Each structure stands twice: as C-alpha cells, then as structure tokens.
Amino acid sequence: MADNKESRKVLVLLGSPRKKGNSAILAGQIIMGAESAGAEVETIFLHEKKIAPCQSCYACQKKDSKGCAIDDDMQPIFQKLIKTDSWVIASPVYWFTMSAQTKLFMDRCFALSAYQKNPFAGKRIAIAMSYGDTDPFTSGCVNALRTFQDAFRYVGSKIVGVVYGSALEAGEIDSNTALMKTAEELGKKLAG
Length: 192
Ligand SMILES: Cc1cc2nc3c(=O)[nH]c(=O)nc-3n(C[C@H](O)[C@H](O)[C@H](O)COP(=O)(O)O)c2cc1C
Hints:
This protein is of the alpha/beta class. It has a single domain, classed as Rossmann fold, CATH 3.40.50. It is 33% helix and 23% strand. It contains 5 helices and 6 strands, in the order E-H-E-H-E-E-H-E-H-E-H. The protein has helices at residues 22-36, 74-83, 100-108, 141-155, 177-191; strands at 6-14, 40-45, 84-94, 97-98, 124-131, 158-166. Strands 1, 2, 3, 4, 5 and 6 form a 6-stranded mixed beta sheet that branches. A hairpin with a 2-residue loop joins strand 3 and strand 4 (97-98). The chain is globular, with a radius of gyration of 16 Å. Residues 16, 18, 21-24, 92-96, 130-133, 139-140, 167-168, 170 line the site of flavin mononucleotide (FMN).
C-alpha cells in the first residue's frame, strides 16, 4: 500500500438520484458490514455533485499533466479516490445499463492517472445494483456488470463482489432479507 493511502477506508459512490433508493440501501448494507469490520466509510452522493462529462481533451494523458482540465466537483473526488483503497459503486439500472450519474463518474476516472501512476492498481471494488425487471439479464443489469468487469480488469482493479436485486419502488429492496445479508457480508469482505 502506498504511503499516502488511508488504510481500511471505504469510499462509497452513490449513482442514483434517489438518496434512499434501492441501490443506496444495498450500499448501506455494504457500509454496515464494512463498519462492523472496522472500516471508516465516506459516502459521496454523485447526483448532487457538479460532474461534467469528459470532454476528451486528453489533458490528463499528456506528459507532466496537472490533472483533469475540468474544474468541477470531480477534483476533490479524484483526491479521495487516490487515497482510498476500497470503493463501493452503487447504481440503479437505467435503460439497460448503469445510471448516467455513474457513467459520468466512470468516464471522468480516465483522468486519475494524471494524479498518480497506476492509480487503479490494488483498488478493491464492490458493486451494488438494483433494477425494476425481475431478471438480471433482461433488466440490463448484466450489461452494467460486464462494463464494470471489463473496465476494472483493464485498469488492474479487483472486483471483490457484486450484489444486485430486483425492486422498482424506492425502498422495496429492503424486504429481500437474503440480499440484505449478502450485501452486509460483502461489506465485511471489502473491509477485511
Ligand atoms: C430512467 C429510468 C430508466 C430505467 N431503466 C430500467 C431498465 O432498463 N431496466 C430495469 O430493469 N429497470 C429500469 N428502471 C427501474 C430502476 O432500475 C429501479 O426502479 C431501481 O430499483 C432504481 O434504483 P434506485 O432506487 O437506487 O434509484 C429504470 C428507472 C428509471 C427512472
């Protein structure tokens, strides 16, 4: 672990506009598990942040880059991402993949390499997703999971586990007690 890393710290990125929605509840269970294992958790509600789309200027990829050229709320998030080894990404399924809020965040992570060499190496990631359909395939959840899998494999991060479930109305996922337990266990694993 690099010197500037804060050990047993978990950064949670909530990608739904519903603060108390299903993916946030799943993330909450992961947090409960992580905290019970001794982790310190910080949560970022992406929807209330000003995060512009990547503008493909490649300023972040230039030699001696000073970072992402877009001066918005991603700037402090870059610093937190660098300093935290364990991330939770929670998203609803929107139009057969992750939410726009989550995708904006993912695209902007392209610039992380301007702040640290191999910024994704050694990161441990948990994914939480919810969808309205009854099936993870027809809902599009699997598309999003594949995207996360491909992206984090490409950059050398480890997906520690994924939790996902069907629920349409906000809070509905709460009644899936088996899933709640699985999410809590994932939190313990992430922090452990
Ligand atoms: C704009 C929008 C698009 C959606 N697209 C899908 C979809 O493609 N597949 C699906 O199963 N559910 C879809 N849903 C339902 C949500 O995935 C579902 O309600 C989910 O539990 C919401 O999670 P949240 O409470 O964390 O926001 C959509 C909902 C919205 C608002």
